[in-house]
Design brief:
heterodimer, A: alpha+beta, 2 domains, five-stranded mixed beta sheet, four-stranded mixed beta sheet, 8 helices, 9 strands, B: alpha/beta, fumarase, five-stranded mixed beta barrel, two-stranded antiparallel sheet, about 35% helix, globular
Chain lengths: ~290, ~200
């Protein structure tokens, strides 16, 4: 158990102090699109320098190390309670080692728990599967981007957005406009069509774990992702909201069944620091990705 | 690149315009949600401050001609008890919009550093009291922490928690961009207005 705590701490360290290759590549591509010498290009330059420095020093990419969200895939023989306990311990160890900022605040008293443990904190979701191995995917999602996430109910009269893909396009554009640079643009949008208010937001957040450089297997959703990426980048909000050609790095969309009466569109905004990491435990061996 | 040293004189502020890159050196304090609420409720919206008076004197000294950084850092403590900044990017500033104009006026703050920009009330306070809003690059936390040379002291750490405490730090060549100046211009307002037009076009198809 101690070993697993140490392995999960290592997963947290990797997520907090480095970015996945697809995200860094998207940031490099964004920098190449901006006009040399512009404020936008300067912002991306600092972002890329910071990513390199954080990796080299093993220090957090961003001081808001966010809510740790663990998605755990496990066989029926594994204990969800045990994994939850170990994940909580790993958060406390990672806090001691300054990989995580103490981020869990008691909503009644305002007191910070000091170790990233608390009521429903960290967040864990479990998915039972047929494989013998355990896979843990971790997303660290900061507060600035969480604050600009949004949920719409179609039809949405202010934009003339109806209950169809065109309506979805309009409200997601509006979410990106409302966010301006406040969610640390250029970010990534996880979008869910349908579901209920809870399931839609959760799925939208889980979409942020997907790589940016893979097409969506559903052709309609793939087309929507591409259209939204193109449209949002015409808003000229740019890196940090300084104006510029890249407002989002990517859009990942999913659709859920919904009630006949409800058509929600949930938009989970992730800052440019898309901190995700994966760990696999198989036959007592641990590997990271 | 404008090299600016704290404390900052009024004519240095009026020389700054939106889009200017600034490199800041001197002693400043972090302050975010709990700290701003505390400043306003304890010292400003009262007839006469009666509580936390020694802290009041300390803060007046730091903030007169000084700078506030909207930041909740990741810190580490050495064995001798000294604090170090590990990661220290800016937090979203707009949450302090309700407090900041009064803080600028009361304490004579010259520079507010954060991310995402602030609203019309802070822009007005900038003009009236000769102050600027500087954008640091959100998320550039390890890079910015390398500009923090010393943690001078910390106030309210136990009560507010690490992210919300007043961390008084000495910075050297802290990189930022002027995005709201003392002449009434705000890049944030301009980008928002332009993106609103673009949104209308894109929604109309």
């Amino acid at each position: 158990m101690n070993d697993l705590t140490e392995h999960l701490t290592e997963l947290i360290r990797r997520a907090a102090t480095d970015l996945p290759a697809d995200v860094e590549a998207a940031l490099v591509a964004a920098q190449e699109r901006e006009t040399p010498g512009s404020t936008a290009a300067g912002a991306l330059d600092m972002i890329l320098k910071n990513v390199a420095l954080a990796r080299q020093q093993s220090t957090p990419v961003c001081q808001d190390t966010g809510t740790p969200i663990f998605e755990v895939y496990l066989p029926s023989s594994a204990s969800t309670r045990e994994i939850s306990e170990i994940a909580g311990r790993a958060c406390a160890v990672a806090t001691e080692r300054s990989y995580l900022r103490p981020n869990a605040v008691d909503s009644l008293t305002g007191k910070n728990s000091g170790n990233n443990r608390g009521v429903d904190y960290p967040t864990l979701h479990f998915h039972e599967w047929d494989e013998d191995r355990i896979k843990v995917r971790l997303l660290l999602k900061g507060g600035g981007s969480e604050n600009v996430s949004a949920q719409y109910k179609l039809p949405y009269a202010p934009l003339g957005a109806g209950r169809d893909l065109e309506g979805v396009r309009k409200v997601v554009l509006d979410a990106a406009y409302q966010a301006q640079g406040k969610g640390c643009a250029p970010g990534v949008l996880g979008v869910t069509l349908g579901g209920d208010r809870g399931s839609g937001y959760l799925k939208a957040k889980q979409m942020l774990l997907l790589p940016l450089d893979e097409p969506n297997p559903d052709p309609a959703l793939d087309a929507l992702e591409r259209q939204l990426l193109d449209d949002i980048n015409q808003l000229d909000i740019g890196p940090m909201g300084f104006g510029g050609r890249t407002t989002v790095l990517g859009v990942r969309a999913a659709a859920q069944h919904r009630l006949p009466a409800c058509y929600f569109v949930s938009v989970a905004y992730m800052c440019w620091a898309v901190r995700r990491a994966t760990m696999v435990i198989e036959d007592g061996q641990v590997s990271y990705d | 690149m404008h090299r600016v040293t704290i404390p900052i004189a009024d004519d240095e502020i009026t020389a700054l315009h939106v889009g200017d890159h600034v490199s800041l050196t001197g002693v400043l304090t972090t302050a975010r949600d709990a700290a701003h609420k505390f400043l306003v409720e304890t010292y400003i919206q009262v007839d006469e401050p009666t509580q936390e008076l020694s802290l009041y004197e300390e803060l007046k000294g730091i903030l007169k001609g000084g700078a506030i950084y909207h930041c909740g850092p990741v810190v580490a403590q050495d064995e001798d008890g000294a604090w170090r900044f590990i990661a220290a990017g800016p937090t979203t500033s707009i949450r302090e919009e309700v407090y900041e104009p009064e803080v600028i006026e009361h304490f004579g703050v010259k520079a507010v550093i954060g991310k995402g920009g602030m609203g019309p009330n802070t822009l007005k306070a900038n003009r009236e009291h000769k102050a600027v809003y500087l954008s640091a690059i959100g998320g550039a936390a390890s890079l910015i922490a390398s500009a923090v040379k010393e943690v001078v002291t910390v106030f309210k750490k136990e009560e507010f928690g690490v992210p919300e405490a007043f961390w008084v730090i000495r910075v050297e060549d802290f990189p930022a961009v002027v995005t709201m100046d003392a002449h009434g211009r705000s890049i944030h307002a301009e980008v928002e207005a332009k993106s609103k037009e673009r949104l209308a076009q894109l929604v109309a198809g």
